[in-house]
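User: Here's a chain of 313 residues. Predict its fold as tokens.
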Amino acid sequence: MSFSGEVKEELSRQISTSRHCQLAEMAAILCFLGRWRTTAEGSPVLCLQTENEAVIRKCFTLLEKTYNIDTGILETGYDEGKGHTYITIAEGREKVTKILQSVRMNDEEGMAKAQKKGINPLLIKNVCCKRAFLRGVFLCVGSMSDPEKSYHLEFVCTDKEGAEQLRQMIQGFDIEAKIVIRKKYYVVYLKEGAGIVDLLNIMEAHISLMNFENYRIVKEVRNSINRKVNCETANITKTVNASTKQIEDILLVRDHYGFQNLPDSLRETAEIRLQYPDDTLKELGQKLDFPVGKSGMNHRLRKLSEIADKIRG
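Assistant: Prediction complete.
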């Protein structure tokens, strides 16, 4: 199972104890996956357009706890015109009206309006209800990338107004969320690991949060080690390149000027560098008869390079 699937499985088992929170989560499910159908006799049927077992299980649990509706036998249908599978959750005007009125959608027109414009703000006026709503939305249209590879969480919405309502709700928890248009959809997304952690906490996906944090820790340690290795490699390369240039200059001075013409300090420095080509400046300075520091060695080698440049000129 993917990491996104694990999050949804955890969220499907998270049931709010307050009825107003249960209604907020039910509203999210109907807003994003709810469909209105009519039987041959003209009786209204409320359906979910989904094959996700976690969503179906959560919806039927909410129906039983919130409305005391016996879900009975699961009925599955197929819309040949649109190529969608749908699950019947309630049939008959009394049941359908009871459910829709409780989430302030009232009828088919009210449900269509909520799906296009966003749900009634009264359903999510409490912080706990916002948490429940976000939990329901993620179950329906949310997804996450594998945290071992990248940090990305998104909600795919069909309408701009609904996407904007969702973005504002997330930002109400001080989490940065953005909207991007992908084909005909409006995608609300998060890219920062810290923001994704906060949102998982808000949705009460605590086990997934800990697993995500474990991935983050491993990834950050690995990146830290890589940075240190790259830095050390760069320093070694820099040292080797500098040493190679110094030796080239010293050999040029020896062959075209002669060590005997150099001051004793420069002659000794040139000889010690040729003898220990891989040592650092600090190590070379300690090998002199009268040791000098890194700065002193650098000064002497720079003098030798100046002599070599004059010879080249």
